[in-house]
Amino acid sequence: MTAVEERGISQAVIGRLPRYYRYLGDLKSEGVERISSQELSRIMNVTASQIRQDFNNFGGFGQQGYGYNTSYLYEEIGKILGLNKQHDMILIGAGNLGQALVNYMNLKNRGFSFKGAFDVNPSLFDKRIGNVPIYPMDRMPSYISENHIDIAVLTVPKAAAIEITGVLAKTPIKAIWNFAHVDLKVPDRIQVESVHLQDSLMKLSYNIRRHEEGK
Ligand code: NAD
């Protein structure tokens, strides 16, 4: 299925694909060769009809009598998510959060690789986060072009994030993974995904309240 045929697929469906991918990866490493939508539904705690509906957006992945081929489904969902390609990334803002992302996230196995980090703090220059060198900000635009960087990861304060996004818009960057608590305005050709851990915590807080009030 081409990107054109894929148009119109809801963000809700796309949002569920990483979870399918994660579960199928686990099943694959456990040696499970085939899985029915009922079985997948039981493990993932979603309805079998939701799974079939989700997969039908992509042609159904050829479920036969006794289920889906786990490896095939894993590879196909990986392709839809663009995980069959290497994505080179830079970090902008080599502080606490930025260093934690580079150090602790097991991204390389998924094809995401930090190539360089950038910061305004001169005491960080020529230091490294693991193997990743830290450079001054004025090198950032040319570094992106010369090293064919796809994704900029933004872990800087709000005001800096807005200013840096303006600079990034003039480079060939394809996407921004934004951790600053601000909505970024970018040209259409740049994809933005914002992550706010606090939103998840607030959701948890809501569920605690709802549960306690329902007692
Ligand atoms: P930090 O102060 O440890 O690190 C910020 C880094 O950005 C510093 O190294 C600083 O020198 C650098 N910086 C500042 N201005 C810059 C600029 N103009 N260009 C380049 N580098 C610049 O802060 P932190 O704890 O790592 O948090 C970073 C940001 O992430 C903050 O805005 C914080 O609110 C946000 N944050 C978001 C989440 C989330 O879930 N989205 C979670 C934690 C923190």
Largest sheet: 7 strands, mixed
Number of strands: 9
Looking at the overall shape, the CATH architecture of the largest domain is: 3-Layer(aba) Sandwich
CATH topology of the largest domain: Rossmann fold
Residue share in β-strands: 15-25%
Would you identify the regions where 5 or more consecutive residues have pLDDT less than 50? none
Helix content: 40-55%
What is the helix/strand order?
HHEHHEHEHEEEHEHEEH
Distinct compounds present: nicotinamide-adenine-dinucleotide
Q: How many domains, as an integer?
A: 2
Order of neighbouring strands in the sheet with most strands: 5-6-4-3-7-8-9
The shape, in one word, is globular
What's the helix count?
A: 9
CATH superfamily of the largest domain: NAD(P)-binding Rossmann-like Domain
Alpha-carbon distance between the two ends: 49 Å
How large is the radius of gyration? 20 Å
